[in-house]
Amino acid sequence: MPSTPRYFQSRGKMKLILLFDLDDTLLTNKMEAFEPAYVKALAKHLSKYVDPIRLIQQLGYATQQMTRNQRPDQTQENVFDRSFYPALGLNRQDIQPDIDIFYQDVFPGLRDLTRPRPEAIDMVKEALADGHTVVIATNPLFPYTATFQRLSWAGLSPEENPISIVSTYETFHFAKPNPAYYAEIIAQLGWPNSPIIMIGNDLDMDIAPAQQMNFNTFWISNGDTPGNYLPTASGSFTDLSQWIKQISFMPIETYSDPQSMTSILQSTPAALNTLIHQQDVNLLKQRPRQEEWSLTEIICHLRDVETEVNLPRLQKICSENNPFLPGINTDEWAQTRAYNQEDGIQALAGFTEARIDVLNLLNQLGPDGWGKTARHAIFGPTEIKELVSFMVTHDRTHLQQIKCTIDQISGN
């Protein structure tokens, strides 16, 4: 007879979204020792192409550029490639075979610097067995192979465990400690209506930005003290299990503060870029049912709402004193504009471009700017902050729709 899961036996039917950091959370891996060894080994392996010291310096610069990226149309991989190879006079395609050899033959030797944490392995496996959503929320500064190898060292091979998302530099646009990174995770999941818990060891990288997104947080303290930080809870994995059993978690219904709202708006085109490019292009115009929208129709709707409603409204409020905003029926556009005849990839690019314009406008607002007012034809007196909250809800609703559509047309 199978044993009852230790960690989740008191959760009932409420399913959780559990975001686990990797290094020094699921895997004992002191990055102050691991990163220098990794960089030194890579520089030595590629020394026939470039001086190791110069390579290490440029690697540090490119990594810094990844952590600073704010553009939802640039993956971490895009940012790295642009910041690393040209400055060294290298072409990635020319040296990619040697990079592949490094990750196949040299990188595995770094395993001796790490140690699995059995209690963490048990918890993740039991969470998966109980139907909770598990995400490996590791900083996406490493390529797929480096991250998946470290997961295997931790005893959590993705091939053997149904982990929903592992964040790597190929599929993520933002990095820790940007709150948009955390919003991007949930956006890629399709904003499910479930409580979210971020579990990690780093207060600056894991806990503080996740709290800015209103996530529950548990700090794996490893015997340290939090100082001025106030994580939702803290302690060991044993403490985490007791806390999860005792607390009644609730899904996040709404967002209202500028930081979290702009992070969500920033994450939507980024997540869409990943989700849509993972699909067979021939499925983008397939409707789950005749009366429902295809992925192309949803994206065209997002693009036109952003281009013809959201951006002009915000511009109008910023340039005029308490302007009148007419109501606009956008749902009929899918048929009248024949969205399903359009190119979904091009529509996504158009939405992303318009969203960047919106973000640039919002980022220029001072604290008082969020309170600038307008008169809306349907819901009366309003202000920029309220309009942006409507945009956030609109994003979350359509990401839920997109994830549901993907599951249906792909047979998941």
Describe the structure in your own words.
The protein has 412 residues and is of the alpha/beta class. Helix content is 50%, strand content 9%. The protein contains 14 helices and eleven strands. The protein has helices at residues 31-45, 52-68, 76-84, 92-106, 118-129, 144-153, 179-188, 203-212, 237-246, 258-277, 295-319, 333-336, 344-363, 384-410, and strands at 17-20, 27-28, 115-116, 133-136, 165-166, 196-200, 216-220, 233-235, 324-325, 373-376, 380-383. The strands form three sheets. The protein has a six-stranded parallel β-sheet, with helices on both faces. A three-stranded mixed β-sheet has the order 9-10-11. Strands 2-3 form a two-stranded antiparallel sheet. α1 crosses α2 and α7 packs across α10 (258-277). The longest helix is centred in the last third of the chain and has 27 residues, at 384-410. The radius of gyration is 23 Å and the shape is globular. The two termini are 30 Å apart.
Quick overview of this protein structure:
This protein has 412 residues and is an alpha/beta fold. The chain has helices at residues 31-45, 52-68, 76-84, 92-106, 118-129, 144-153, 179-188, 203-212, 237-246, 258-277, 295-319, 333-336, 344-363, 384-410; strands at residues 17-20, 27-28, 115-116, 133-136, 165-166, 196-200, 216-220, 233-235, 324-325, 373-376, 380-383.
